[in-house]
Amino acid sequence: MTAAKTGAAPPTLRIYDTLSRDKVEFTPRDPKHVRMYVCGPTVYDYAHIGNARPVVVFDVLYRLLKRLYPRVTYVRNITDVDDKIIAAAKESGETIDAITKRTTDAFHADMTALGALDPDAEPKATGHIAEMIALVKELLAKGHAYEAEGHVLFGVASMPEYGKLSRLDRDALIAGARVEVAPYKKDPADFVLWKPSTPEQPGWDSPWGRGRPGWHLECSAMSEKLLGKAFDIHGGGQDLIFPHHENEIAQSTCVNGRDAFAKYWMHNGYLMAEGEKMSKSLGNFYTVHELLKEYPGEAIRLGLLKTHYRQPLDFTRDGILEAKRELDGFYGALRRSSGKAANTGANVPAAMLDALADDLNTPLALSHLHEFAAVLNKAETNGNRKTAATNLRAAAGMLGLLDDDPEAWFKGAAADDAEINGLIAARDAARAAKDFKRADGIRDQLDAKGIVLEDSAGRTTWRRK
């Protein structure tokens, strides 16, 4: 096992930068203040497990950055004006405001259940329309945009470096733009900055008439408002590289300069479910809201972290159950050591920091958790147990794990303690009277309720399956 070190120099953070296609040493623009922007949800429905993956990934990065640097500002936006939201309102009859509020609240509750920290700022697109209109005006003034039939579009021909993030060839760029092919475009790859709104659609007054922003424009405006023209890390799912992030770069750098906007780009890999692309028709379309009715949020989180963030992830129910069993082992070690309080302020073992500093190597980090748990299980003195429990808790905290009380973890919030403890007492009495048939019957009765008994060291503890 790698020994825990204290007082050691912090590790050098290395990340895979999508723009350079290389693992590079992270050098922030300002060593005293790291700034990160991550694309958040479009709030028209419950977040699915694919939406949750970047939240968990960049939550781990946020925790690591806060350990390594004196100040970190993490911004994650809410897209609350979008054609998908308009379509959902039309289909359901619910107002747009009601849909966005309900689904935003659900997103917050679900991500909290997954152990994600709140970002430092969470701007909503509808709160930054003025900044978006100002950005469009600048693009027009500098010759990077044009008006056509009530629309304002970005002209990709005005930017020789367009496509540098995705590295797509000309045919691929046009194919990616086909969702917005229109006769008023000068070039098929041109994309919408501002579009007209009908009376029943949400819209804002602008120099080009009543309308609403294009999706790509929103993040450029909000990141500049909250992080400045040049910041450190822009993150999101791999599916956002093109066209969303490519178009953000085009908008922002054409206004603010080639070296402005994000210095590094990080993207998590694609997610599948049960070996196939998620689809409601296949029965493998998992929303976090529904999964939380069956599994602890911490088990779902661990399931997402067991695969390196840049690799494709096959998310399965069996995988959640495996993660739950692993957490049972960690919490069991803490319970046997009477370790109840979280040690969030403790020194994090160097092995854990080294693993995460290597481009968020969560599989390696999790292997260290098992090592720390093994040391705890073998500890023979109170002092050694306390040290080992502190190391395990502090290391797990970097991954957003093991923040629960061990007894609460095993019993579950829905447990009727009085009834269960009464049955255990009755079983103990039956065993003392050598009435093993009754004792086994009580165990079976509890098993039918989803309660597992564990006999050790002259006492019986219990947990939920």
Description:
There is one protein chain. With 465 residues, the protein is an alpha/beta fold. The chain folds into 3 domains: 26-268, Rossmann fold, CATH 3.40.50.620; 289-408, no CATH class; 417-464. It has helices at residues 49-68, 83-92, 96-113, 129-141, 170-176, 215-227, 241-256, 288-291, 297-305, 317-336, 350-357, 362-378, 382-397, 406-411, 417-432, 436-448; strands at residues 14-17, 22-25, 34-38, 72-76, 145-148, 151-154, 191-196, 211-213, 230-237, 261-268, 271-273, 313-315, 451-456, 459-464. It is elongated.
Q: What is the share of helical residues?
A: 40-55%
* End-to-end distance: 30 Å
Main structural class = alpha/beta
Order of helices and strands: EEEHEHHHEEHEEHEHEEHHEHHHHHHHEE
Mean pLDDT: 91
Task: Please tag this protein with its features.
four-stranded parallel beta sheet; 16 helices; elongated; 15% strand; 3 domains; 14 strands; disordered N terminus; 465 residues; four-stranded antiparallel beta sheet; alpha/beta; Rossmann fold
